[in-house]
């Protein structure tokens, strides 16, 4: 992880006494946890830095108040890391999993800490992200996504992580249902996308291992050579399915300079030097040839999916399941993301929408 760990947000504290007692019984070599910090960013599973006298580790647990089991399944995320680590080393090594809630109130797992640079909602201190560097980083991130999509899913066993047949249709129907279940406001652009997607699903597809949340703040860069990716984080939604669905989600997060400012904290892709969304697609297609090159559907789906994720988080806030002040204005993020999808439908292109 990066060096950006901070004090724990109010209401998201770990029971350090119980955690230390448990680990000393189950894993004596772990050592006593002397300090716990929290990694910032993200609205999903919570990530903590555990420091002992000799080492540092990372603990992941579901968010407080979450009841979406499939999206916060610690067991599955740990299994993905275990299986993936055998063939793809750009991930933290998984170390320990606990399936009960009697220690910290939820299942959790512990993995190694990977030190490096993570680009979150603003440039790291003492680092100048020049246009030349941003172009190199943006290109490296796309090439690395291609590398993930080219993993051998059959000989590695990764194919067992998902059900590729019917993946696109299940995703469209599933996210429409999730959005309806979490709906709080009437948003015309969302309703337009919901009607458009089932009518425009692709006829052909390929199958790959996919991350499903691939963006800058889930990538660890080498501090000595920032266009080198040393780790990819947050595998909670990884599965096997159409790789262009993965690319579509990445494109939805890939903010451009003209996008609504509310979408820019997702990714520093709007800084000068970055590829725009259409250039991302061009680079991706130059490295691998999918069954279809019509990216519009996948981008619109990505916008809807991200809007749905944010809507679910906002609904938890509205219902009082969390008091995190970051969630208060998320409905405006939902609307901004949906507007990007609607404009793409109207203009039939994914870049320069404004």
Briefly say what this structure is:
With 354 residues, the chain is an alpha+beta fold. It contains nine helices and nine strands.
Number of helices: 9
Q: How would you name the CATH homologous superfamily of the largest domain?
A: Aminoglycoside phosphotransferase (APH), C-terminal lobe
Percent of residues in helical segments? 25-40%
Question: What is the third-level CATH name, the topology of the largest domain?
Answer: Aminoglycoside 3'-phosphotransferase, Chain: A, domain 2
Overall SS class:
alpha+beta
- The top-level CATH class of the largest domain is Alpha Beta
Report the sheet-strand fraction: 5-15%
Low-confidence parts: none
Radius of gyration: 20 Å
* Intertermini distance: 35 Å
Task: Provide the CATH architecture of the largest domain.
Answer: Alpha-Beta Complex
Strand order of the largest sheet: 1-2-3-5-4
User: Overall 3D geometry?
Assistant: globular
**Mean of residue pLDDT?**
91
Kindly give the count of domains: 2
User: What is the N-to-C succession of helices and strands?
Assistant: HEEEHEEHHHEEEEHHHH
Give the biggest beta sheet. 5 strands, antiparallel
Count of strand segments: 9
């Amino acid at each position: 992880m990066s060096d950006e760990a901070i004090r724990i947000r109010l209401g998201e504290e770990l029971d350090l006494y119980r955690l230390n007692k448990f680990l000393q019984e189950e894993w004596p070599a772990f050592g006593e946890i002397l300090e716990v910090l929290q990694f910032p960013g993200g609205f999903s599973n919570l990530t903590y830095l555990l420091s002992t006298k000799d080492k540092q580790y990372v603990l992941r647990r579901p968010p407080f108040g979450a009841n979406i089991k499939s999206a916060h399944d610690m067991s599955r995320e740990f299994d993905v890391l275990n299986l993936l680590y055998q063939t793809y080393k750009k991930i933290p090594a998984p170390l320990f999993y606990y399936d009960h809630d009697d220690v910290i109130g939820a299942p959790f797992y512990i993995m190694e800490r990977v030190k490096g640079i993570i680009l979150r909602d603003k440039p790291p201190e003492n680092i100048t992200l020049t246009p030349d560097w941003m172009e190199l980083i943006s290109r490296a991130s796309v090439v690395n996504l291609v590398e993930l999509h080219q993993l051998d899913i059959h000989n590695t066993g990764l194919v067992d992580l998902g059900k590729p047949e019917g993946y696109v249709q299940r995703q469209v129907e599933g996210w429409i249902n999730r959005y309806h279940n979490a709906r709080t406001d009437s948003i015309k652009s969302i309703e337009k996308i919901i009607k458009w997607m089932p009518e425009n699903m692709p006829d052909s597809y390929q199958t790959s291992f996919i991350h499903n949340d691939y963006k800058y703040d889930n990538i660890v860069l080498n501090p000595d050579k920032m266009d080198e990716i040393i780790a990819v984080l947050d595998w909670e939604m990884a599965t096997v399915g159409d790789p262009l669905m993965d690319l579509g989600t990445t494109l939805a997060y890939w903010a451009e300079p003209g996008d609504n400012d509310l979408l820019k904290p997702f990714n520093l892709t709007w800084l000068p030097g970055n590829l725009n969304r259409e250039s991302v697609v061009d680079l991706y297609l130059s490295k691998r040839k999918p069954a279809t090159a019509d990216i519009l559907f996948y981008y619109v789906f990505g916008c809807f999916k991200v809007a749905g994720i944010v809507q679910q988080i906002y609904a938890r806030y509205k219902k009082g399941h969390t008091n995190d002040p970051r969630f208060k204005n998320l409905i405006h993020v939902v609307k901004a993301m949906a507007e990007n999808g609607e404009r793409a439908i109207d203009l039939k292109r994914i870049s320069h929408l404004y």
